[in-house]
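Thread: iron/sulfur cluster complex, take 2
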Amino acid sequence: MATKLIYKTKVDYGEFSTKYSLRLYKGCGHGCRYCYVRRMFRKKYSDWIKAEPYLPKNEYMKQLEKDVEKINPNDGVLISFTTDCYQPIEMKLRYMPEILKLFNEYDVRTVILTKSSNVLRDLDLLSRMSNVAVGITITTTDITEKRRWEPHSPGPRVRIATVKQLYNHNIPVWISVEPILDDTWPYIVLRTKDYAQYYIFGKLNYFRTYTTAEWIVIGHEIKRLCKDYGLKYYIKPPLSELMKSAIVY
Ligand code: SF4
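Output below.
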């Protein structure tokens, strides 16, 4: 029997949390060095970046429709926590246009999360959807840091241009600043604040880039900056949990 593609998730994304997420590709060609999913699946880096689909497209779409019929569309599906749905292989295999058409037909609240400008290929489809929001992950504006941590995905300039394009096509867009890689996070906010309607911030786990005290200060600086510009935002645990543990003036 085919594996179910839509599964329940508890990942907390503030206003963009969904009850469900979607399996799409095994592995991810973006090959981020900090990728927790690769660690979770205990994959070697060289195997992880050779992504492949869960099922051949026909079989996948049949199974997906069965799954969609069983859920409440208002509960929402986030695509995807375990891969990037617009990584390079998607440009060849083109699963996303079929998925978006199906989700639109069933009026599924759809939340996309990607690091790639490839999402712009589906602009027409996305602009026709009644219930979609696209999250673009931007973790640094420093191209050298980007190359170090996220070697095979588009750079910050391209991601920011993608945010503007989505906005110009009236597609709700939000920014995932997770994981924060360096001190450029305020520039991410300043360069996107006129286009994005929501921000999610999260710390880098498992790598010691900042001390605990520094993370706490960063958390409070985020609060201040977002408050100053009247931006809607959400700080994810464990950073928000750390912030509760100390007062920073
Ligand atoms: S884009 Fe996401 S799933 Fe892909 S390698 Fe990077 S962190 Fe992992």
